[in-house]
Design goal:
Helix content is 34%, strand content 21%. Helix 9 links the parallel strand 10 (239-246) and strand 11. By secondary structure, the protein is α/β, with parallel strands linked by helices. The protein has two domains: 3-68 and 133-220 and 331-350, 3-Layer(aba) Sandwich (Rossmann fold); 225-325, 3-Layer(aba) Sandwich (Rossmann fold), CATH 3.40.50.
């Protein structure tokens, strides 16, 4: 813990006590958790973000969508709407939030719903989309008014919860012991090669409980996707300079990836879920034009692309080579089959014919 964390420790103790009491009220059934008759899978984390929830939700969608009718339920962080909402083809990041909008655009055949109250949200999904067979809860580990049938906890390989502290001294929303509620723990953003010794050490640090399953995943990057006609004309695979901008919790893996295709990577960072303004686009444009290089491009994340694509902000990039870099999650060979089998077995065992 750094000096700032130590100074904030009294606040962390107070916050931790409040969360502890809340969790105990659920444990002792003073506050009630509701179970549903259909399979409900929760994906979340102990920390405030940056563990890779979105690509893991997409992994589950791809795994299940051929055999089951899926609905996702998110809070819709950063949206300007409230209450229950079904994300449709005219939704924007302002009305739906960037992650739900991404799910809707990539998987138009599934139901993508929003509600800050997850219990109400699931009931509304079943009312408006009764053919739903599986609900995927996005970022719902602390939403204990719903008792998920299968709870998946994500933790970053480079910043596991076992080495983190409660807010505001660290980034944890609750104490490390909250991990006991998880059925599955996925260590995300791992190296492509990871040794059994490293895995064993991590699992000892995390204090894995009997019956919990631990899997290891890593990020696989796709090809650069052009976002305008100007970018479509670019055929190079190696660049002198890439200007990257991102409004996500942890942009460093993307930055490292871009260094493999560029001599220099310049970065402009915004806060997570940042809603871009014209002044931000102007800043990006001016910085790009100041870079003394001919073979240069602008790259952002898929999430950030959702916030600006189809909006007037794209006008700033009409004559600029703007791309986004898609990502997907892959599991290490020893884990892929086991993880998928556990998910599918849970869904099949708990599906209903409502």
């Amino acid at each position: 813990m750094n000096i700032t964390g130590l100074l904030l420790l009294p606040l962390a103790v107070l916050y931790g006590l409040i969360v502890y009491v809340r969790n105990k009220m659920f444990d002792f059934k003073i506050l009630k958790s509701k179970s549903f008759a259909i399979p409900v899978i929760s994906v979340g984390n102990l920390s405030v973000g940056g563990t890779g929830k979105t690509p893991h939700i997409e992994y589950l969608i791809n795994l299940l969508r051929k055999d089951f009718n899926i609905s996702t339920l998110s809070r819709g962080y950063g949206r300007k709407t409230k209450g229950f909402l079904l994300v449709d083809e005219v939704a924007t990041s302002e009305t739906a939030g960037d992650e739900p909008l991404q799910y809707r655009k990539k998987f138009p055949e599934i139901c993508v719903a929003l509600d800050e109250k997850r219990k109400r949200g699931i009931a509304k999904i079943l009312e408006k989309n009764p053919e739903t067979k599986v609900v995927l809860l996005d970022d719902a580990f602390q939403h204990r008014y719903v008792k998920a049938g299968l709870s998946i906890l994500l933790t970053d390989y480079y910043k596991p919860f076992s080495h983190d502290y409660i807010l505001p001294s660290g980034t944890l929303r609750e104490s490390r012991s909250g991990m006991k509620r998880a059925d599955i723990i996925v260590v995300t953003k791992c190296p492509r090669v990871i040794s059994p010794i490293t895995c064993k050490s991590m699992e000892e640090d995390m204090k894995i409980q009997h019956g919990q399953h631990v899997y290891y995943s890593y990020i696989d990057y796709g090809n650069l996707i052009p976002m305008n006609a100007f970018a479509e004309k670019i055929a190079a695979e190696k660049f002198s300079t890439i200007l990257m901008f991102a409004g996500i919790a942890n942009p460093y893996p993307l930055e490292d990836q871009l260094k493999s295709i560029a001599d220099t990577v310049e970065t402009i960072k915004f806060r997570d879920h940042y809603q871009y303004q014209p002044k931000d686009m102007l800043k990006i444009k001016e910085m790009f034009e100041s870079i003394f290089s001919k073979n240069k491009i602008i790259v952002t994340t898929e999430k950030d692309a959702m916030r600006i694509n189809g909006t007037p902000l794209m006008n700033f990039f009409v004559n600029l080579p703007l791309f986004y870099l898609p990502i997907e999650v892959k599991f290490h060979k020893k884990d892929k089959d086991k993880f998928e089998k556990q998910i599918i077995n849970y869904v099949r065992k708990n599906k209903t014919n409502h």
